Amino acid sequence: MDSFWKFPTMDADTLRLLKKNIDEGFRAFTRAYGDSIESLFNPLQSFLIWAERLLLATPWPVVIAAVAVIAWIASRSMKIVAGCVVTLLVIGWFDMWDDTMKTVSMIFVCTVLAIVIGIPIGIGMARSNRLQRIVNPVLDVMQTMPSFVYLIPVVMLLGIGRVPGVIAVVIYAVPPMIRLTNLGIRMVDKDVLEAADAFGSSSWQKLRNVQLPLALPTIMAGVNQTIMMALSMVVIASMIGVQGLGQPVLKAIANQYFTLGVFNGLAIVGIAIIFDRISQAYGSRLQKHREIVHG
Length: 295
Fold this sequence. Notes:
Layout: H1 2-5, H2 12-40, H3 42-57, H4 60-75, H5 78-93, H6 97-127, H7 129-144, H8 147-158, H9 162-186, H10 190-198, H11 203-232, H12 234-238, H13 246-255, H14 258-294
Helix pairs in contact: 3-6, 4-5, 4-14, 5-14, 6-7, 6-9, 6-11, 7-9, 8-9, 9-11, 11-14, 13-14
């Protein structure tokens, strides 16, 4: 009757041997191909360093003015522009400017990578039900896997540093970009596509001139979600050497510095609100424009 109360498990020696073989196999793979894989990411490291140096070397009034201009172009709302400017001034006033610029540069690089990777895959899924059936379970795993787990294989392959952190953040943040690109293209009105076919549009012309413009509000929602998920990884990525606002939070946790943790946490929230308001306002403007054009 013991088997009724105790769940049957694999033999302890077999389980230990299985884990040992998997670990040794992955270590052998990293020893054999780690350097080659690391060299593939040299352009990413250069891009990351360039973005960080650009923001740190630019005078703070220029950065704030640039953010205000971007906010105005995206939203046409003085409230959003004023909110962005005040938030950045408060962050700078509390001596978190440099860390904020490092975090913004990392989020910028991660978002660009997510867009470059996510949009082509989303387009492919929208055009192929078979590809959608293959990719969807992978995206489910990527979104439900605990974020700390991403760090283990990345650190084993590439060690500790900014590039492994960025890769882990992109893996975590790219699924919404793929899903919403796929959804946006699939939601395009079939009558509009039939009209494009009637005018003799090729597949590429339909995608470029009809599907992508009409799906742009949904794609912008994907960009918004990607940015928010990347920001949620700032503290976790700091554990493997990503600089920015996450490292002071990590230091505050380790040393019980309450104020340091709260201030830097609020700075991350402030950046998230800025990105969220700007991208949402731009998406809303695109949606209204589409409704006006297409009735």
